[in-house]
Structure formats: structure tokens, C-alpha cells
Design a protein that fits this description.
Elements (H helix, E strand, L loop, with lengths): L12 E2 L7 H8 L34 H29 L67 H11 L1 H4 L6 E6 L10 H19 L2 E5 L13 H11 L5 E5 L3 E3 L16 E5 L1 H7 L5 E9 L2 H11 L8 H11 L10 H11 L1 H4 L3 E4 L6 E2 H4 L3 H14 L1 H4 L7 H8 L18 E3 L16 H20 L4 E2 L8 E4 L7
Helix pairs in contact: 5-16
Length: 502
Amino acid sequence: MVKHAGPHFPTPLKSPSKPLTNHHSHLLYRRTHPFFPKMKSPEVYQSPFSGHIARNTGGVRRSSLSIASDAFIFFSGAVAALLLVWTFSTFSNPQPQTPQTHSFETPVSDPKPSVSSVSVTDDVCVVNSNGLNFRYDPPDPNFYDDPTLGYTIDTPIKNWDEKRQEWLKQHPSFASGSEQRVVMVTGSQSDPCKNPIGDHLLLRFYKNKVDYCRIHGYDIFYNNVLLHPQMHTFWAKIPAVKAAMLAHPESEWIWWVDSDAAFTDMDFKIPLQRYKNHNFVVHGWPKLIYEKKSWTSLNAGVFLIRNSQWALDFMDVWAGMGPQTPGYEKWGEILRETCKDKAFPESDDQTGLVYLLLKEKEKWGDKIYVEGEYYFEGYWLEIVETLDNITAIYNNIERKVRSLRRRHGEKVSESYAAQWEPYLKDAGYGKFSWRRPFITHFTGCQPCSGKHNQMYSGQSCWDAMQKVLNFADNQVLRNYGFVHRDLLDSASVSPLPFDYPA
């Protein structure tokens, strides 16, 4: 293991040691009123030229200088009068002129009957930095106007690909680049956590996902309600993913990430091109699926699914094993019979996914990519002990390459991530790699309920979550000039020395 003492850090800034209560969590989201600059009232304000102006109140005799001054004033007044007359004449008889393009009002053009005639304005108030027009939604009918189309999981949808394409034609600014567009979906229960620190942990896991999405320009939807009252626990994700597909026709991919999964490589992006011929990506091991028929041969807590008719049909079948169906108990028996190592009797989404790969491979298998070459999601227990060594190796590389340690704005982080790749070509991926693991998944820790797997202690879960979240947070805080010097101390940060880690 590479050992590194690290640089000298200034005195850390300590956060209050008082535990974060629900009240304090609420304050994190509370918005304050903006501060307005102090303004002087008309009664108090005086012009710098408003001092006493002396007047000539002498006799009738006046000097030649005074007479010349009066003549100048008279002439100036005459010119001003002529200018005033000319100005009113101009307003009453306006001349044709080119309209100003810089306006604080957002111009909204009249929609045209033909979709092909729609143009996208370059007005900065309408189009964002990515060229997306958030203010243009033509009145032409589309799938949103169909009263028979439903968002619920028990309402089948047909011809979704055609409906999406028609919507993109109506919204041309979203059509370009739609193949690379991703919406992340995650969530948790609607009730407070039973674990006293559970809500704080969920907040930190959510912050981690928001950080990742902000850096890479992804949208994120956090859901904490059941979109089907009977589809609870691990089944709740399927209705949320379907609703997200309908809410985001502009996005090609919907990315479900469990609430207890954390991004631990803020630079890495999903290689979408790798999955161009597939519609569903999940982390797993084909040998364990097709030979061992194990229910743990994959992990359904993180998956990428294409916004398509195929996906809607697949989720209809997948959800058909859920608790909202009359065959729920029967499906539990079928899944246990299929995967002999399944320990509990209830039908679950993960074993259901294994079943579909085993029993309906011809129908679905060709479009499902079982990713096992990198940590699409990784088991926390095999990751957490590698983080110190990974940090030391990255620091050693940065000492040798100044361009990698150069300070930069967060918005250009992806360019620096690309600069790293030549130095990581021998790092490998997944287990035994010294590359940062992409996603660390705390399977079995149950941060909200606290009912962790008995094979490890609650303290080991808590320490590991702190370490992983701070490891990820350091990658974010670095662009803000700070760092956690101790990965097990979430409350303290230190200012980052210039040219760190030289």
C-alpha cells in the first residue's frame, strides 16, 4: 500500500458539533429574503449642486460681461426650444428603424401551424447556455393532450417512440443532443427515518447525487412518495421511472440510482456509446446469472434504461411480479424455485430481473447489457478499504503533472477529467483497480431504518458511509478551495493550499 503523509493543512474549520436535527435540516432548504441596498429618501437626498446659489440683486446698471452672459443664456434657450420642437415632431412622425434586440422582455413568437416553420430564438432569456428553449411549447396537440394516456404503472402506453419523436419535432431545441441526455431518478420513503441519523445520511447521499449531476449537466428527480400505493420498498422504483419517462421526453435515458448509493468518482461519465445497441444496463455477472442462477448475480439498485416503447413494455412485464398484482405470492414461489439461493419468500424486483433473463432471454436478453467491467455499482465492503491508497496514488500523479492540479472552475471539470485518462490507462477497472470506483453501493446497511445486515455492525456501516461520502465530497470541495483532511471527520474542513498537492 502506498503511504503518504500529505501536506500541511491550516487549522481546520469546525462545524457545530450539535447533531443535525429535523429542524436544522429544514433550515437548509429555507429561503431567505434578498438583501436590498439602502436607498436615500427624496426628502433627505440633496444634490451636490444644491448649495446656495447667489443671485445678482444689484441696481439697474449691468456690466458688459453680464449682458454677454444674458445673451448666451438667451441663445442657449432658443436652441433648446428648437430641439424640443424637433423631438416632438420626431415622436409624432416616427421614421422606420431597426428594432432593438437587447430587451428585458422575453419575446415569444406567434406559433405557426407548421412544425417545420418553428425557429428557435437566440435571446438569452429564452434559450439557456446549452441552447435549450424552456419557454417555447407550441399549441399543436401531442401525447400530453391525450386523455387516455396515463402515468400510472397499470396504464399501458403504445407507440411511445412515435409520440416522443413528434414531441421532439415540436420542440426542436431539445432534438439536438437528445441521444446523450440523461435524467437521474432516486428517492426514499415519505416518512421520517427510524434510524436517528437516517435522515441526515439520506440528505448527504442526495447531496452527493446533486453534486454529480451538476458537474455533468444531468437533471435529477428525487421522489419520496409511492406512485402506486401497493408498490413499496424495492418495487417503488418502477412507477417512478415510468413517470419520469413521460415527464422527460427530451431525455434518451432514465438512470435509477438507489438512495444508499454514492458516486465516488465525480469525473467518470457513463459510456453511453458502449450501450448504443441496448436498452437496459445493469451491474452483474453473466456466469452467475446463467450458470449459477443466483438471485445476487446482479444488482437492480442501479440501472440505466432507454426512454422507449421497449422499456415501457419491459417494465409492464417486470412490474407484473409486484405486490399490486393478484399473483404476487405465486411469483414469490416461482422466483424461489428459479433461484435456489433466494432466502426470503416474497417476490422482489432483483430476482424478477434474473428470472426474465433466464426464462425470456430471447425476448429481452439481446437488449439488456449486463455490465461487469467497471463499478457501475460496487459493493461497499470491498471498496472502502481501498480509498486511502487510491487517494495517495492520485496525489502522487498530480505532483508530477502540474496541469492536473491546476485550480479551475467547476463548470470546466470535464476537460480536466479528460486530461486524467492517459495517466489512468493502467489503473484497470473494478476490483483490484486503483482507479476511483464509480459508484459505491451500501447494500445491506439500510441507513434509514438502521436494520443492517447482521454480517456486519451498524458502526462499520456508519464509518464506511462517512468515509465514502467525504472521499467523494473532497473531489467537489476542491473546486471551492477546501478539503476534508480526515475522511472520518465530516464536520471539519481545511482551506486547500495553493498548488496542492505539490
